[in-house]
Amino acid sequence: MSINALEPPFSALSLTEAQLRADMAACGAILERGSRSFALAARLLSVEIRGPVAALYAFCRVSDDAVDDSDDPARVARLRARLDQIYQLTPQAHPVDRAFTAVAQGYDIPRRVLDLMLEGFEWDATGRRYARLEDTVAYGVRVASSVGVMMCMLMERRAPSTLARAADLGIAMQLTNIARDVGEDARRGRLYLPEAWLREEGVDPEAFLAAPRFSEGLGRVVARLLVEADRYYARAEAGIGALPPRARPAIRAAALIYQRIGAQIAAVGYDSVGQRAVTTKGQKIRLAIRALGALFWRPGPPQAPCPEAKTLIKAAAHQPTSVEFILPRPAPTPEPADPRPAPPQKP
User: Fold this and answer.
1) Looking at the chain, which terminus has fewer C-beta neighbours within 10 angstroms, N or C?
2) Which CATH number is correct for 129-318, 1.10.600.10, 1.10.340.30, 3.40.50.300, 3.90.1520.10?
3) What is the rounded CA–CA span in Å between residue 145 and residue 132?
4) Is 326 helix (H, G, I), strand (E, B) or coil?
5) Residue 193's closest CA among 143, 136, 272, 137?
6) Is 250 strand, coil or helix?
7) How many Cβ atoms from other residues are within 10 Å of residue 169's Cβ?
8) Would you tell me which CATH number, out of the four given (3.90.550.10, 1.10.600.10, 3.20.20.300, 1.10.3430.10), belongs to the domain 1-109?
């Protein structure tokens, strides 16, 4: 990947081309270690975008790790201070921070989108619980849909209808994560399942957290959550055809691989307390090959974002004003036209 000479305001980063290459490589290593599924899907992306995608993933990964093993809200405050430095072009002397600063500025990623992601981390740190499905979805919007809309920005897509479908995919993936990690989360004192659903099935949330164990009622809650995840996967499909052609198979592969996790959970009777569902390398490769068909997809009909994602879409959809680039980007492909027919003109 060639890198243009630094121009103000990016000269404040004091990065050489070699340093930026090294920082991007470090982010790529974090991606490979942190998510085999996403790393496999990312290999289907064009070469030009892999570095920025790795930097985005790495920043989200290290941020999540910084608060994931602790319920100390001060850790989130430190993350916000770290983000302040990034948006002031004075990142900490860390490869991930330097690389993400270049990406955030070069692709005009709004700070508000990152703030929403950190709000989700703060919910974790404060032990927030989720009474209804809508509350669980709102959490997914913050910690997962925020990443999806930033991915769209790296692909030169900022139309609200496309961002809304990216948000749907983030929700679907997060609901799948929650369904897979019920036992693991409970043993750490966290519960993301809608508590109203648990009580309907005779599962007391407090008793479950005190002694996590599988029951038929809990299995029905997990199955119900996966039905909701499938609904969001279906909504997300309409947006894949609006992405640049080279990006479509990668996003489709990520969706298929994650959705397969739900099938694995179903195969063991929805018991995600005593075991953790995984997809094999062979399954992932077959799904990635299947995803190549998305190269020829066309955009689906526009749909409004889900209510819980409206704040995120509004934050992400603003048009850049004055953008200077530290990372060269391929010429953007035009966004597809709205497939709806034009309204009749008044006489």
Assistant:
1) C
2) 1.10.600.10
3) 19
4) coil
5) 136
6) helix
7) 27
8) 1.10.600.10
Q: Check: CB of residue 59 under 8 Å from CB of residue 147.
A: no
Tokens representing 5? Answer: 């000479």
Query: Which residues 6+ apart lie within 8 Å of 138 measured at CB?
Result: 308
| Residue carrying the six token digits 């992306």 | 45
202: left (phi over 0), alpha (psi -120 to 50) or beta: left
> How far is it, in rounded angstroms, from Cα 53 to Cα 51?
5
The pLDDT tens digits along the chain (347 residues) read 333 333 333 344 666 778 888 898 899 898 888 777 777 777 888 888 888 999 999 999 988 888 776 677 788 999 999 999 999 988 988 899 999 999 998 899 999 999 999 999 999 999 999 999 999 999 999 999 999 999 999 999 999 999 999 999 999 999 999 999 999 999 999 999 999 999 999 999 999 999 999 999 999 999 999 999 999 999 999 999 999 999 999 999 999 999 999 999 999 999 999 989 988 889 999 999 999 999 999 988 888 999 999 999 999 876 554 334 445 444 555 555 555 444 444 44
Render the burial of 223-236: b for 16+ CB within 10 Å, e for the rest.
ebbbebbbebbebb
> How deeply is 47 buried, as exposed, middle or buried, from its count of CB atoms within 10 A (0-12, 13-18, 19+)?
exposed
- Record the pTM: 0.87
Is 132 strand, coil or helix? coil
**Which tokens is 166 given?**
């990216």
Q: Which residue intervals of the chain bear CATH 1.10.600.10?
A: 1-109, 129-318
Residues with Cβ within 8 Å of 11's Cβ and at least 6 positions away in sequence, in order, are none
